[in-house]
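testing teh design pipeline on a random one, pls ignore if ur not involved
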């Protein structure tokens, strides 16, 4: 594959080839003049003179042909010269049509796309931990840049309004019923009951003196204090013992009753309209509270801070999750042939759609771009691209002309 030269190098290469082609033409002219003036074309000099004469003709003809592509030879407006400047727009249209007809076709583009194995190559790239980290960094930069242009005041209000609307529309009774059943099935409701019972035991023990004073206040005056003490101690000890028994006995009757009642409540949340209405009313009352509405307005601020901070920290859970998901996606694209086939099929359909509907528009970019070019600039750009190779035409014309002249002169001498 030929590596394109930089513009400056192309200019120097073109100048060197022009100088070479021109030098050959000058050399032919000098040889012709010497043979003509010194030896008058006699003997061997006649052969050399004929070759040099034909060489000049061939070199001049090819110089004219090459020059006529890009400009008027010697500035003379000879018909059918300066072809590229005069036909620039037609060349652009023709090139666009050529590309549209022979390159932008579903068969060619689709074939190249299939041969590229895009899902597998993308998957291999993404599965590399270094590349996954790079993707996470780029996404982090994108998140940070996006966060700076977003208007927090408008988004804060919009997010709060959206959350409030969605919560008001949400039927929480079935959701709450599923949560309660999940808790019952996993036994978490019994664990929660144990925590509540032990907390209640600590609360009672810490406030024993308060309950004793309350009993003294409610007890008749004629009852002795020692009686109140014995009654309180007996009752308090019995209550603590009962709570302790329930907290350690997984098969206690109270636990079974609690399980039954909780499951029955979950069922009522599904089937009892009155129960569902009460839950809905409680939800609406909760959403109407000023502190809840104020909390909703902070959702966007908290969410934004969490995402931005997590994206900026290379060691955050968010960044690690993005890297892990990126590598996982890469592994799926690389190894799962079914997924790769689906993506290939989607890409093929996308290509067919684009080619069918927008091939002319894509090719039109070529003609529109060429049309905007200045004529002189167009000639210069094209000459830089192909002018060096065209100079070989001049060189070949000079050499072939010399050989042809020599052959013709030789044949004429022998005939």
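output:
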């Amino acid at each position: 594959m030929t590596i394109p030269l930089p513009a400056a190098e192309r200019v120097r290469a073109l100048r060197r080839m022009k100088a070479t082609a021109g030098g050959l033409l000058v050399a032919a002219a000098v040889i012709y003049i010497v043979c003509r003036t010194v030896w008058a074309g006699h003997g061997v000099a006649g052969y050399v003179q004929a070759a040099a004469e034909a060489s000049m003709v061939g070199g001049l003809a090819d110089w004219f042909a090459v020059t006529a592509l890009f400009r008027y030879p010697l500035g003379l407006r000879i018909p059918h010269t300066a072809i590229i400047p005069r036909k620039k727009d037609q060349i652009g249209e023709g090139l666009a049509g050529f590309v549209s007809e022979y390159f932008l076709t579903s068969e060619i583009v689709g074939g190249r796309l299939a041969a590229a194995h895009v899902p597998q190559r993308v998957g291999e790239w993404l599965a590399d931990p270094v590349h996954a980290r790079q993707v996470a960094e780029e996404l982090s930069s994108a998140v940070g840049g996006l966060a700076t242009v977003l208007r927090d005041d408008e988004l804060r209000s919009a997010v709060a309004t959206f959350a409030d609307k969605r919560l008001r529309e949400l039927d929480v009774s079935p959701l709450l019923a599923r949560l309660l059943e999940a808790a019952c099935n996993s036994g978490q409701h019994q664990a929660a009951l144990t925590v509540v019972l032990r907390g209640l035991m600590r609360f009672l023990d810490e406030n024993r003196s308060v309950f004793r004073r309350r009993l003294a206040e409610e007890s008749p005056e004629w009852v002795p204090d020692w009686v109140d003490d014995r009654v309180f101690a007996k009752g308090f000890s019995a209550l603590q013992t009962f709570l302790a028994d329930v907290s350690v006995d997984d098969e206690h009757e109270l636990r079974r009753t609690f399980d039954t009642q909780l499951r029955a409540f979950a069922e009522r949340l599904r089937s009892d309209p009155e129960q569902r209405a009460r839950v809905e009313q409680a939800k609406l009352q909760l959403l109407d509270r000023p502190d809840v509405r104020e909390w909703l307005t902070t959702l966007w601020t908290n969410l934004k801070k969490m995402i931005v901070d997590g994206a900026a920290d290379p060691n955050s859970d968010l960044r690690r999750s993005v890297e892990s998901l990126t590598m996982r996606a890469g592994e799926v694209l690389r190894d799962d042939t079914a997924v790769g086939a689906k993506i290939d099929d989607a890409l093929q359909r996308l290509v067919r759609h684009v080619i069918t509907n927008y091939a002319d528009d894509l090719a039109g970019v070529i003609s529109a771009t060429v049309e905007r070019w200045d004529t002189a600039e167009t000639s210069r750009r094209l000459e830089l691209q192909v002018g060096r190779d065209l100079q070989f035409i001049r060189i070949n014309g000079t050499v072939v002309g010399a050989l042809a002249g020599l052959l013709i002169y030789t044949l004429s001498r022998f005939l």
